[in-house]
Queue: 2 jobs
Job 1
Amino acid sequence: MIEEVVKTKAMVLREFTKPLALEEVDKPSYGPGEVLLKVKAAGVCGTDLKIRDGLVPTKELPLIPGHEVAGVVAATGADVQRFREGDEVLVSFYIPCNTCRNCRRGRQTICERLKGRIGFEFNGGFAEYVAVPEDCLIPKPPALSFQQAAVIPDALGTCYHVLVRRAQVQKGDYLVIVGGGGGLGLHALQMAKGLGAVVIGVDVSADKLELMKSYGADYVIDGQENPSWSKLVVEYMQGRRADHVVNFVAHQPSIDEGLKATGKGGKLALVAYSKEVKFNALYGHLNEIDLLSTRAATKEDIQECLKLVLAKEVETVISDVISLEDLNYGLQLIKDGKLKGRLVIDLE
Ligand SMILES: [Zn+2]
Ligand SMILES: [Zn+2]
């Protein structure tokens, strides 16, 4: 008997820097310990732009990107124990070994033997179907929509990881969020408020300043109108500098100014990244500044974020919903910095 190959739709990246193409592809195969997921919603983020342009490591092309995925289990491979057909889930997109030293101390995103990531080293969720290891699945609470569930692993998880695991923000800390009006920043802002921090949001348009205020920023600063904005931080904090500056932007002036806004013993956390940034090591030395890098979110972080959303402590900020074939348009929206929240592909 000849087995019929079932075709399904996906957005495929065949050449870096070029638009992705809507293609008919084979339904993904799934092995032992893996499930086939019918994708219901997939978040799109700045990292997808970097992937398209070949700026982050991925598998060899062609690649179906998409690392922010929620859907329904359509089929299960051998040995899958905890999930079955029809289960609604979201995906923790890192595939760690769970046994190395870093995994054992809860730092799975820097696993010594990372098997890869969904949407980077493995095909992802810009498709009708994706294969995912059972270990990466998290049950979707019925109270959340698939769209909400899709943005949680990255847009919320990454914020939780930097604020709670890396910077370890405490009640009463003074915290600056650079790029606070963006798709990650608005979630970080809400979480920082929930942790009891005094929050100053820095961004560059009147719209984004308003958004930061509406999500609870204690003070907001237009970084374009005030290029020396660290002085305003000191003013708002009654002569103090910040305990934490979390940077979601990564361009050099924002790092320079953020460092000036960081007080003695403070932490400068870089969520956004580029290959090179300059860091005034003399200022760092004189003030014992901790320079923190941070990488995505662990499955546990994502589960904590689910609790925050269910408890209504953090609201998911989804500004735009598009269809799968409009992904290139969506990537352009991100590139233009036009979004006022997260972008989600609806596949329901
Ligand atoms: Zn992402
Ligand atoms: Zn590991």
Job 2
Amino acid sequence: MQSPKLPAKEEVKYKYYAGFSNTFVQDVLERFSTSATRVLDPWNGSGATTSVCAHLGIQSVGADINPAMLPVAWARLARSDLVLKLCKHLAAQRSSHLFSASHLGAQENDLLSSFFDSKSAANLRILRAYLIDAANVHAAGLDSNELAALSGAAFIVLSEVLREALRPLRGTNPSWFSRPRHKEQLVQLDRAELHSLLLRAVAGLEASSKSAPNARPDHFQWPDLRVCDSRQNLANLGKFNLAITSPPYCTRIDYAVATIPEQLALGELDEIGFLALRREIMGSVVTEKHSSGPPEVSPTSLLGRTLTAIQNHPTKAAGTYYSRYFSKYFDDLLRSISQLTSVIENGHIAVVVQSSYFKDVKIDLSGIVTEAMLAKGLTLSSSRAHFAKSSIAWSNPKFKLYRSSNVDTEDVLVFATSPITQRGLQ
Ligand SMILES: C[S@@+](CC[C@H](N)C(=O)[O-])C[C@H]1O[C@@H](n2cnc3c(N)ncnc32)[C@H](O)[C@@H]1O
């Protein structure tokens, strides 16, 4: 089985920190798909699963709770000749045209004002409106899917501009942006600076699109991409016979904060909406003091023992905040696994997981996911470990106090609903 790691040479329009590689998805499809396959990724992120399925002519559905991941997954499907045309158009625009009054960006209560001073936020709104228009300029003759994909490419440009613009608020952890607390900390950028960030983002997109093939294969199948919560709504998506997916890891990556540039580019959420997303998204560091408590599991199970070890750990806040955090994460994961297993019929679920540590307590995500899948009546048909560095979110120079290595494995687990159909495993 191929490693899920993103190889440096694999050209993707959006280098998502948690994405897995196209070759990994291809490998799983080769081993487990049949002509009748309908594929699901309930944590679709930047959409590796749906993009590979589309190019192979396989029907797929990609769901993600984060609305900002939708245009990212669409962008992966954009035709490269159209993207290159869009890049050429954007690169040719003078700053005075980009910021002309005809592209007024409305919506004053979006999140931009929380990060940028009022002038910069206003300019970014104009740029956002301009980029939406720019995709439409090339829309003649395109069907709605093709337009959504091209708009996704314009969205990637804007997200890149915003990611760079937010650089002063980034620390060593690439998935975190700090919040300005005072007016003086708001980011300020003039139009010339924004224009040069735009040109850089366009050049980046152009470079990654040049090597991509122009023509679509005849069998190309647009995926169904949607916002959906894996903990409760998967039944609405119908039945599937294969899932290729990777849940949010238990490494305190706050996926809502990590995608702040994309949230700003989308402009849909205000502060209240953003906080709601932060509460709901799995793996979130936001926990409620009066949460529902730990999931109901036997104290002798792997998950039960892990939660007890965290609860009883001598470190500060282990019995309070950290217990709440891990209880919520695993409650969300078990609910999602219950949903996922109910929509896969006569097929397989391929899951990529990475284990992690809380101090010296190993969070054996691979073992815990296996335990949950077996409890749902599935069988483990293949398991393969690939070495990976421990997540940056937990990486702390003091890790040596607790363990000798900061390297762990990323595991590829394949489960079968009965009957088991093992084909050329390992
Ligand atoms: C590890 S990433 C998946 C990466 C993906 N395999 C790729 O190639 O980009 C996990 C994804 O799960 C999403 N997510 C978190 N909580 C969710 C939920 N309750 N329902 C659906 N998606 C969720 C996050 O927004 C994130 O995009």
